[in-house]
Predict the structure of Xylan alpha-1,2-glucuronidase.
Amino acid sequence: MCLLIMLLLGMVNNACADEGYKLWLEYNKIADRPAAAVYKQQLKYMIFPAESDQLKAAKAELIKGLEGMLSMHPADTKSITGGQTIIIGTTQSLKGLAVIVPDSIGNQGYLIKTALINQKKCILITAKTDVGVLYGVFNFLKLLQTRQPINKLNIADRPRIMYRVLDHWDNLNRTVERGYAGSSIWNWHRLPGIIDQRYIDYARANASVGINGSVINNVNADALILSPQYLTKIQALANVFRVYGIKLYLSVKFSSPVELGHLKTADPLNDDVRKWWADKIDEIYRYIPDFGGFLVKANSEGQPGPQTYGRTHADGANMLADALAPHHGIVMWRAFVYDNNVPDDRSKQAYNEFKPFDGKFKDNVIIQVKNGPIDFQPREPFHPLFGAMPNTALMMEFQLTQEYLGFSTHLVYEAPLFAETLQSDTYTAGKGSTVSRILQGSFNKKLITGMAGVANIGTDLNWCGHPFAQANWYAFGRMAWNPDQSSSAIAGDWLKMTFTNDAGFVSSIKKVMLQSRENTVNYMTPLGLHHIMGVSTHYGPGPWVDNAGRPDWNATYYHKADSAGIGFNRTGTGSNALSQYAQPVQLHWENLQTCPDEYLLWFHHLSWTYKMRSGRSLWDELVYHYYMGADSVKQMGLIWDKMQGKIDVERFNQVQQLMKVQLTEATTWRDACVLYFQAFSKMPVGAGYPKPEHPLSYYKEMKFYYVPGIGGNNYMTN
Ligand code: BDP
């Protein structure tokens, strides 16, 4: 009926009620007849022997995709019918067909190829391992989802990063720290008995983009997670994940031996402590034989750690690594540390604490470093630790959940942010030492490699709150698989797979997505400003915050605005944080002639009248960016309005409403920040700009209650 009405209304719609639950695995019917007929012709039969759980899952996915897109189910066959058979399996499961795969695809890669087998032309999807086949099948389906020709295929692909992990900041009480899409998807009370379909769909979605690990609980961890009661529940999740090639990891609290084991200390060099961890780890592996390992936030924001007992990060990480090594588990040890008792610039502290330990960590330890040196700000220069520890495995930590990017209300496509960091040249091993290459282990082949994304997933029907926030989960997976992929290509695929192949929609909305992060930088923190959001909740503007729990949680610590100017001097005459970068980078950013506008106030304190490249004064430039940011949200809304009828009504309306809220919030950011900084610059706002609706006092007094993302257990917040 719904479809009929839409057809009558002449809408080019391909779905009725669509709440976005299916993510990019919509598998909508291919309405374009010639394309569908050509595909159908080539996929009449399949040879897909599937005995293992992973191969069965791959086969079920293929059938689901083909049924959805083409209303067809290739017939199982044993013989090859020329041009019409699709052959799928590992070199072993396809024994008898003498399938050969290139070594270059490694253990997790795959081959999708038009091949002559037994003198007959067919489509071959193969790999060395079951999980490789699973990835191959998802990528084959992607070809159809994005309407690629399949008559002449030759795709060999493999992941460039070993550990491609989602970090959930989920608490045991089901709140999600910095989560804006409902509650935790892990229903602890009902586990292990009830396996929610969501767990399976979560694992499918991850596998479809090559994510192969999930840390299921908050880095501000509860020791209870290691109790037998929870391990039984966790085992049930691991059983679901395994089918899709995903390993389960846990965040652990360093003081667990005290809290759970009733020991007097958690000193990593104490024998009883070491034994406690070794026993606990043996126990975990009895529940989950392929358990991935631990993620640890230690001596950071109030969390206990080895330094609590006079030991070092290396002592702590290596103790856990020793206990995990016999089981092939790893330790992801976070470098997000800073101490309010250290008077030094917060941006320097992680480097200062970790660099001296280069080469001192065990082989199965990987240091997890946030993309920038402060904390997931809308824009940060790359973290100086990348490249500074050539003998230590380092993994990237990106944040998908939009803690500092307007929560799940603002459309912010993060791939350009990821790419900006990944393609930054650290120069630590000469020109071309990009963060991406460092992460891929290009400069030290012995090291393990990884990339983590702090998940933006919750119980909302559409998983991520904003329909476009799904793109960040998707893009993270794609970039963890291959950090050099283009943001634009990923956006294009995601739009087609999630919404429609309509060329007008894809090209217009791809532009919107690619511009969206810069818009947000402009209306929140232009020209290198950072950490000026509302205290604790991190919601809305708060450049005036000057009384937080510790100095380096104050906005005033970061922008340093006064009557003379604005910005954090991190050059040699200031905190000298620049000295942590390789010399070419240091010189480039230190010199005002070459420092890009994007990082200007991150590294320099400049007078309000400082003349910018544009010819404007710094004050005028700042105002210009704030107004441009809010205005571009308005433009984005106008473009979206034109998309009516091109996609399903539900998501169209939802995005339209969200964009209106985003515009209101962007305007608040703009007005609050311009008014606040104007109190220092004492300079006028150009005549052409609309006046703020309210005085500064109004913005300063705005109060927000029950803001999402806070209220968990074991909670320390900045
Ligand atoms: C900050 C968050 C805080 C996290 C912390 C972390 O505000 O909730 O616990 O990062 O990464 O961005 O540990």
Notes: The pocket of beta-D-glucopyranuronic acid is lined by residues 177-178, 219-220, 297, 301, 336, 375-376, 403, 717-718 (CB under 6 Å). The chain is about 35% helix and 10% strand. The CA atoms of residues 620 and 687 lie 11 Å apart.
